Amino acid sequence: MSHVLRVLRSAAKLVRRVSGLVLLYLCLNYPGTVLAQADIEDVFQNALACALFEPLLADMPIEPVYTVAENACVSISPNDDASQVYFADAGCLVPLNFEPTELTDHCNLLTDSTRLGEGQGVTEPVWTLSPGAQLDLGAKSLDGVHQPYLQRHVYRRVETAGGTCNLEMRVYSPKPGSEGLGSVLALHGGSWSSRGFGFFGLELTVPHYTDRGFVVYAPFYRLLGDSDGSPACHGATIEQITDDAEAALQWVRTNADAFGSSTKPVVFGQSAGAHLALS
Description:
Structural class: alpha+beta
Distance between the termini: 56 Å
Helix content: 25-40%
Number of helices: 7
Radius of gyration: 19 Å
Shape: globular
Strand content: 15-25%
Largest sheet: 6 strands, mixed
Mean pLDDT: 84
Strand order of the largest sheet: 5-6-7-9-8-10
């Protein structure tokens, strides 16, 4: 019976992955049949197209948190119950602020170039689980990999000609309240002029780091040109973008202790982010 169950689970994973890849192929090669977009650059300008990737959300294990049940502190996986009270420790002494993130909400933010990475809705520290970290689209499978917890912060506010640019730091942790972890500062790509695709790709890699005992700090930075970001955050120079990356590094050094990770992070980036990592 156990062999049959393993075969059925493997078949279900294969169907999920193939169906999702078919949708991806249609989006990129026949956009008019799916979302009436003109080219690959515009695929994720449509939240509906993003939501079509639901078949590729891996069924990932999650490190438990804690709650009080029948006068005892018990472990629990966070759920969609807004009334549930969580704690970060096995004694139920450290409250944990947790809110679920629906795929539609994730897609709405991912596809809004004026909001993504600019701290929209960040008022207090809240842990959540990002659907973007569940997408099994990377070169390495997410089978058996734990889904990381996510917390969003504004690490820098810069006054520019377009207004106040709020730059966001996303903190991914194996589990809230962890200690003795390594730190990774991960810089997204996008030719220094866009965020959506670059961050989409970066988030695919995050679970592989957190599953190996790292907290991943992923900052957004100001952008060249005016094709992406809000007026306050685009039109930057390379020097200003580099300054944002240095500010992000300093933020990690200052705040890493609060997330139980090293104050000496490993720094890496993808594409344009790799250039920033070397700067």
